[in-house]
């Protein structure tokens, strides 16, 4: 099948001008123009097939949003090639954006003072959506995203989760082939996150819409994406299956135990002591050797425990580790 | 094309409905704008009572300049309020301009449709009343050319000021700090055009003749309509340059806008 997105040697460099402070600051800014070069995106290559659901992962400032802005045509690359759905995004802007949907988590695409339903009606005109198709889509999304309770509420009065649902609906009414989501679950509670994830999964599977979503929340990716791409400092560090990534680089799980007293020797098969602070001991273990409950059972059978906590490896640490230890180079 | 116009109509109607949500504030705004216009002309009129004329211009002749400039600027300010530099600058700063780039509609149409400040009607109403008073008191020797000049000058002024707004808005792709400078040309330009050009020092007049040729938009057509002699000794076709100057400024503004857009898309915000 032909690639729906293809990105070759993509670069985006920014010049950041030094800002002087004080009254004469603006004048000195103009006079000196000292700048440093920031490589926000630094030589990225990837392709995405139609119908894929790909997670684009990385810590804040890694270059995720910059990549997404180039893919949606908001930014022009410094160099390199992007083809999305047979368009060069920034060149044929109006034709291109009619075929994609995009939601940038922090900013609503809807009209602030208008009730949600009127914003959606306006989008019908803007995208020239045929009436029957519009009604059909709207009907389906209203149900799946549970929009009805706030369909007549002005956008400015919506909660973050409601606004995100309305925005996602707005991005899909014109039957785009591709959906770009920038941090779709940022700032949402667990229930709201789950609802949005289920919906994304649904439109990907039932409608075959290709989805690329950026996030720094591992649980988004775990639940949704088979494939992840990891970016840090503008470079693509990993592109492949999520499972493989965890197997190769996943941190050990941690069990932190506060014992009632200080024990000299503690040894449990399958777990190693990573840290010891008085009566608090941190064990590292891997799910293949021993489960958390087995470990806790064994410990509590032999020692008196006051409190304990299991820490799962989080993606931030994994990515950090991959980057710092140059695991992928 | 008709689709684009249709979108424009929808965007405007959305905008107006939004403003009507705050009905009381809307009425106060209209009143306030009208009052400001009345006061500023009132102050000229007061001075005139003492001195009879400014540089040989009677109160009704000045009222013609004033009424025309106000009405045209007010009209422009409604149509082009999306390009109002401080307003558009805020849009760029907050990143909401990106939403426009994501919609399959011409950007200028979207910006024009993003704001339509009805309360500026106050300025138009007041301006046209002053213009009407002036026209009824002046004994103009009407000819076909003079009659035709009224709408042409009016439309030229609207286009000219619109071009200045677009240039000012475009600057916000580069800077968020110095947009006040633009107001010197837009708001300052209107104020300046409300008075006869011969009262200004040479330097200012040269600037508004050769660099930003505002002098041809209102001053020269007015000299012609009122049969006043040209104290500055410009060529005899000067009164007829208004539409050409307006269109030229607009073309420059539009080219600058496209250039700014490319800059914005290569740097982000």
The separation of the N and C termini of chain A measures 30 Å
Order of helices and strands of chain B: HHHHHHHHHHHH
CATH A-level architecture of the largest domain in chain A:
3-Layer(aba) Sandwich
Total tally of structural domains of chain A: 2
As a percent range, the share of helical residues of chain B equals over 70%
Fourth-tier CATH superfamily name of the largest domain in chain A? P-loop containing nucleotide triphosphate hydrolases
**Which residues of chain A form runs of ≥5 with pLDDT under 50?**
none
List the domain count of chain B as a whole number: 1
Morphology of chain A: globular
pLDDT averaged over residues of chain B: 88
What is the strand tally of chain B?
0
Query: Biggest sheet of chain A, in brief?
Result: 6 strands, mixed
Features:
heterodimer, A: 329 residues, alpha/beta, Rossmann fold, 2 domains, 6-stranded mixed β-sheet, 4-stranded antiparallel β-sheet, 29% strand, globular, B: 269 residues, mainly alpha
How does this model look, in words?
The complex is a heterodimer of chains A (329) and B (269). With 329 residues, chain A is of the alpha/beta class. Chain A folds into two domains: 203 residues, P-loop containing nucleotide triphosphate hydrolases (Rossmann fold), CATH 3.40.50.300; 61 residues. Chain A is 34% helix and 29% strand. In chain A, the strands form three sheets. A six-stranded mixed β-sheet of chain A has the order 5-6-7-3-8-9, with helices on both faces. A four-stranded antiparallel β-sheet of chain A has the order 11-12-10-13, with helices on one face. The longest helix of chain A has 18 residues. The radius of gyration of chain A is 24 Å and the shape is globular. The two termini of chain A are 30 Å apart. With 269 residues, chain B is mostly helical. Chain B has one domain. Chain B is 72% helix and 0% strand. Chain B contains twelve helices and no strands. In chain B, helix 4 packs parallel to helix 8, helix 8 runs antiparallel to helix 9 and helix 8 packs parallel to helix 12. The longest helix of chain B is centred in the N-terminal third of the chain and has 29 residues. Classes of the chains: A alpha/beta (329), B mainly alpha (269). At the A-B interface, helix 3 and helix 4 of A face helix 1, helix 5 and helix 12 of B.
